[in-house]
Structures are given as C-alpha cells and as structure tokens.
Amino acid sequence: MEQKLSLLKTFRIPAVVIIAIIFYLFLLVLKQTTAANILGIFATLLGSYRLFYETAQSILKKRFALDYIAILAIVVALVTQEYLVAAILALMIASGRTLEDYGVAQAKKSLTKLSERIPNEVYIWKNGKMDRKVKIEKVKKGEEIVVRKGEVIALDGSLVSKEGLTDESSLTGEPYAVEKIKDDPIRSGTVNVGNRIIVKVTKESANSGYAKIIQLVKNAQNEKSPFIRLADRYSGYFTLVTLLITGFSYIYSGFDLTRALAVLAIATPCPLIIATPIALLGGVNAASKKHVIVKKLSGLEVLANAKSLIFDKTGTITLGKPKVSEFINLSKNYNDNELLAISEAIERSSLHPLAKAIVDFAKSKKVSLMHAEDIEEKVGIGIEGNIKGKKFILSKLKNRSGMGIGLFDKTTELANFIFEDEIKLESKDIIKKLKDSGFKLYIFTGDKKENADRLLKTLGEDIIIKAEAKPEDKQKGITELKQRGTITAMVGDGINDAPALASADVGMVFSNEEQTAASEAADIVFLGGNFSLVVETLNIAKRTIAIAKQSIIVGIGLSIVGMIFASLGFIPPIGGAFLQEGIDVAVILNALRASR
User: What does the alpha-carbon distance between residue 354 and residue 382 come to, in Å, rounded to a whole number?
Assistant: First the structure.
C-alpha cells in the first residue's frame, strides 16, 4: 500500500492536469467557453511551471537547453488560442519529466539497497544485558552493541563474544563464512550468520568501512556525466533543424501558426535529455549487481572507448593471496602444530596478504586456536605479540629473493614460511578474450623480472610487461601511453597502484579493503577479486553507451520524420503532441534496458 501511495504521489501533477483537461472538455460541451479557457490555461501552467523554472535556471547559468522549443510550442499554442493543445503539451511535458524521475529512481534501486542494508538502530550491550536501542549515529567508540543472527553488522569493531561466524561476501565477493574468536576484528556491512554476538565498536558510523562504500554510491548518483553534456550539445543541432522545419511549415502553409505548432509539438520534449541519464544510471545499476561500484558515471563512457588495458600483476591476474608453499620447522622445542598455532594467533589480526596465507595454512592443518595479546604491527617490518607471557615475532626473511616470513622468539629463529602467488584460474581465458576483442594489453608489476617472464609464458607473448616497476614508474608508463593519444584503463588492487589509477583515463581497482588509497584513486571499484569482473564491466560499459547513443539517434530520427509530416499538414497539433510523447516513452523504455 505504501509503495502504491508513493507512486501516486510521484505522478500527482500529471494526474491533476488530466482531470483539468477532462473538465475542460466537459465545459466545452456545456458551451462554457470562458470557463473552459481559464481551466485550460490553469492546466497548462500547472503542467509546465517546472519547465519554465528550469529553463530560467539554465539561462542564468548560461547553458543552452532544448527546453526552448517546448516553451515556444506552449507560447504559440496559447497565442493561437489552442488551449487544449497547450494543456496536452503541458501534460506531455509533466508526464515526461515525471517518467524520467521515476525511471532514474528505478535505475538507482540496487545502489540504494547498499545503504539500506545497514540497520538504522542497534541495541547497546551494558552490564551483561541489552540496555537500550539507539541510532547508529549515536553509538560512540568503545561502546558494545548486540548483533543477532542474520543481522547486518552496522559498525566496525572487535568481537567481545567467545566466537562468531560472519558472511563477508558483500564486501569481498567470496561466498565463505569466516570464523571469528574473541578480539578478532569485525567489519561493518558483513552479516552475522552464527549465534548472537557482542561487538565492541572501534569506529563510529561516519568513519566505518561500509560508510565508504555508501559514499561511493552517493558520488555516483549525484555526478553529471560528460556524456550527458554531449547530449546537450547534440540538442543544439536538433533545435536548429526544428526551427528550420518550423519556419518552412509556417511559410509553406501561408503563414499558418497552427501548422508551425504541429511541428513544435512533435519536438517537445526531446528524448535526447531524458533517456541518456537513465541509460547511464542503468549501467551503474547493472554493474552494482555484479559487486562493482561505479564511482563516476563518466567512467562508463571512457571505459567503453578504451583501447589499452594496463594491469598490475599481484591481486589482479594472480590471486594476490599468496599460499604457503613450504613450512620449515627450525625449532627443537616446538612441534609443527605448536608453531603454526602461535603464528596463526598473531597473524589473525593482520590484514597483510602473507598473514592471511599463514592463517589459512594453519587452519588447513586443523591446529588448536590460541589467543595473542599486545599485538603490534609495524609496516614494512613485521608483527609481534605475546602468547602465554612470551613474545613472538613474525618478520620478513632477509637475503631472500622470493617471499618468506620467519617466526622468532627473542633470540631464536623457530620456523620459516615460504610463499608463492598463484595465477587465477580464469586469468588465462580472460586475457585471451581481451586480446581477441582488440585491446592492447600491458602488465606493470613491482615483481622480479624472472617472475614476470614466467607469467608471460603462461599468458602468451602478445602482452607488454614492465617488471620491477615502482609506483612512479607505473604512473610514468600510463602518462606515456596517454601522450600517444591512447585511451587508457588501469586495473590494480593496492596502494602502490594509486598514482597510476589516478593518472589513467579510467582506473579500476580490486578492493577487499575498501578504505585503501587505491579505491579512493579509482573510478570503478570491484568488491572482490574475481578477474572476470573486468570483462563483465567492459561489456556493461559498451552496452550502456550503445543504448544511450541508440536512444539519442532513434529519438532525434523519429522526431524529425514526424516534424516533416507535420510540416506538410498530415499531423495536427494534438496528434503531434501525442506522437512525441509516444516517442519519449519508447526511448525511455529502451534506455531502461541498460539496467539489466
């Protein structure tokens, strides 16, 4: 019922105009001409006041708008005392604008659902019980909240309960439940799929990780794309054609304003400015269904025209989640299970890819869980923590070309973890598809040359690889490609890719940690690590822009054909108004296809 009321509210102005037109016709039947004309003028003003207001705003901003034709048509209708035509034109304008608003709202639906997932209120846990229910904006850092089974976790925090189970697929795209134990980090936007848990808030609502995603959505919804401005430029040519045909019909008919009105009616309003934003937002909608956030609508247009694709290696083409390929026990006092349990307890709180690999490896060996205290992670050095009163340190192995981590106590090296980064299963097929589609492919990686060469043998020779590239080298490579006139799309996943992502014509990032600098620098964010999202997003971009252009061309073409017939006297003003509205509806429905 509430949805129906909202729909009626959306279309209330066109509904009132329709009622006024019905009464206008009724008064004419009763031969109450003066009253009918007054009602016709009222219906015209009610249906077109928004048009006049927005046109005035565009004039003040020194922007050309196709609305001038609509205004001219209404003025001519009133001057020629064609009040019914004027009212119908106003109805068509009001209906077109309302249908545009409704279509845009429908296209935004799946994006809006991202923010709607988070509950507005949570229960505070105090003194061992549920104390009170408060808005999430009111929850302070350090307070404890209750999250029941099946609920979306509203705020970032740490687990107070002994254990928990969360579904993080909304952020990572990986459909696996993640086991948690006391003091483990809990991420906002994930779902509690286990028993009720208590979470100690570490970040307030405005600073939560999920709030970042919502902000990306808002930015995407509010931005006006350059492609829409391109449509505005097309409108200038269409206006010129319209005025020429109108002038011809006026002269050809012996200076008959009614004939000119018929032409203007068909040109009002133009689907050019109605369908394009709906198509673009539809593309954003389609992308969001694939766990892809389009931060900038212009990103879709640029991506649709990109000719060169530049990839980072780790985390894009490869898994970016190194696996432990070898575990070496160097201790005489601890067995393998004990060393793995110690390492897992300390690394469990780290977000570093090597830490996650150690945790996964330990879990695969089914070791007993331990609890580490006083954990301290030093970027570029390692991580340390106390277990049962004894300090242990995990840090990078020195004098090793590959990836290696050592476990130490104060004086002794206890174990070594050796890692390898595997290529994603789908990478080879995806790269082949991109080659076959005509893209020029590049890989910019900070990895060693021998590793890059090994990757090249796997993927094929038609790729240019730049190895041992620092962030500034990647950015320089992008700049050089752009200087050659190439439209570039960069795909990365880490902070070291941020400069290149920002420099590329369109930057795309795989981001499991949505707060990274990479996602801030990118135009499009993939929530998860599925490499096939690149191809799917490219397809969505091309399809969206194709539909937007199709809507422009078809709308203009049909309108021009209709105007020619009207100029020759085959279509009266009322018929012209209905014909144009039919064109508008058809074009809008076509644009909505981009949401699929």
Answer: 11
Class of domain 119-210: mainly beta
Which CATH number is associated with domain 323-420? 3.40.1110.10
- Find all residues with CB under 8 Å of 99, minimum gap 6, and list them: 274, 584, 585, 588
Cα-flanking dihedrals φ and ψ of residue 119, to 5°?
A: -65, 145
Contact 541, 523 (CB under 8 A): no
Pairing of strands 524-526, 323-329: unpaired
- The helix/strand/coil state of 155 is coil
Number of Cβ within a 10 Å radius of residue 7: 11
**CB 558 within 8 Å of CB 248:** no
The set of residues, in sequence order, having a beta carbon less than 8 Å from that of 560 and lying 6+ positions away, is: 241, 245
**What count of residues does the chain have?**
596
d(CA 391, CA 460): 48
Predicted confidence at residue 345, as pLDDT, reads 92
Strand locations in 425-519 (E): 440-444, 463-466, 488-492, 506-510
- Provide the pLDDT for residue 462: 84
Residue ranges of domains in the chain: 2-109+218-280+543-595, 119-210, 292-319+424-527, 323-420
Q: Is the distance from CB of 75 to CB of 51 less than 8 angstroms?
A: no
The tens digit of pLDDT for each residue in 430-460 reads 998 999 889 999 998 877 777 778 788 888 7
| DSSP-derived secondary structure letter, 122 | E
* CATH hierarchy code of domain 292-319+424-527: 3.40.50.1000
Element (H, E) at 222: helix 209-222
